[in-house]
Design goal:
- The protein is mostly helical.
- The radius of gyration is 25 Å and the shape is extended.
- Helix content is 69%, strand content 0%.
- Among the domains are: 75 residues, Helix Hairpins (Orthogonal Bundle), CATH 1.10.287; 59 residues, Helix Hairpins, CATH 1.10.287.1080; 49 residues.
- α1 crosses α4 and α8 packs antiparallel against α9.
């Protein structure tokens, strides 16, 4: 029977219960928290990819897939008598009200404020409130509660941000650039020594400093690198096309000839 009105969140919750129920889907019935984590990561990256490609026609579908992951976790928690989706939503709304006193001045969802604020003030207030929340959980270090599973670039940025909030930071981007030059020099020395452990250590320091520069320039290092990845891929595809339409094999071209194709690809982007 065809549905005559849009399905709701309650319908999605019911669907999830059916999938996990006695006569549900065998695959869904076998899942536990850890087993669906890889699928959650995949769905997050698909949402990001769709947004960055501005593929708005498919964004709704990808967001739905991501929402399903949340509902799945909530169902597993409910079955384990831990919490349910309503409690997740209640906690989320309460937290967001608490973290936005400039919007909800009396701590109530339905109160309003005429006070104007700017983005800088809001960000400082947000971090201050989050710091108070962390202290209330008896956190021992500013580095606590930074997920180990985060992509390394994002985690580096969060580590630096926590330290900066306590005043441990370069005053401006120029100081970070000086640090990058220092790290490049140290990496050259490590490479000359042939010590692989030292090379890895110094290469990591250089990457960490570059993430710091992105933070000072208000850039997201993960997004910056993804943009460069796309750019390299597009240019390399052009190089491949030139090779295939010419001699047919990369081995038949010297590096200077391949670089010429690369420069042509760059010029094509500027037209």
């Amino acid at each position: 029977m065809e549905n005559t009105k849009p399905y709701t969140l309650e319908d999605l919750i019911y669907l999830m219960a059916r999938l996990r129920g006695p006569k549900g889907c065998p695959w869904d019935q076998q899942q536990v928290f850890k087993s669906i984590v890889p699928h959650t990561l995949e769905e997050v990256y698909e949402v990001i990819d769709t947004i960055e490609r501005e593929d708005w026609n498919h964004l709704q579908d990808e967001l739905g897939d991501l929402l399903f992951q949340v509902v799945f976790y909530a169902r597993l928690a409910e079955e384990g008598e831990l919490f349910d989706l309503k409690q997740i939503i209640d906690q989320l709304v309460s937290k967001l009200i608490r973290r936005h006193p400039h919007v909800f001045p009396e701590g109530s969802l339905y109160t309003s404020s005429d006070r104007s604020t700017d983005v800088l003030e809001v960000n400082q207030q947000w971090e201050s409130i989050k710091e108070q929340e962390r202290q209330s959980r008896q956190r021992l270090s500013a580095m606590d509660e930074i997920p180990l599973a985060l992509p390394a670039l994002n985690r580096a940025s969060k580590i630096q941000k926590r330290a900066a909030n306590l005043g441990f930071d370069w005053p401006d981007p120029m100081g970070v650039l000086d640090k990058i030059e220092e790290e490049i020099h140290e990496l050259r020395e490590a490479i000359a020594s042939g010590n692989l452990d030292a090379i890895q250590d110094e290469a990591g320091d250089l990457l960490f400093a570059q993430v710091n520069l992105c933070r000072h320039l208000t850039l997201d290092p993960e997004q910056a690198l993804r943009s460069t990845n796309r750019k390299f891929e597009q240019r390399f595809r052009y190089v491949e096309q030139q090779v295939l339409s010419g001699k047919g094999r990369f081995q038949d071209y010297c590096l200077e000839e391949l670089d010429q194709f690369w420069q042509e690809a760059k010029k094509g982007e500027q037209q």
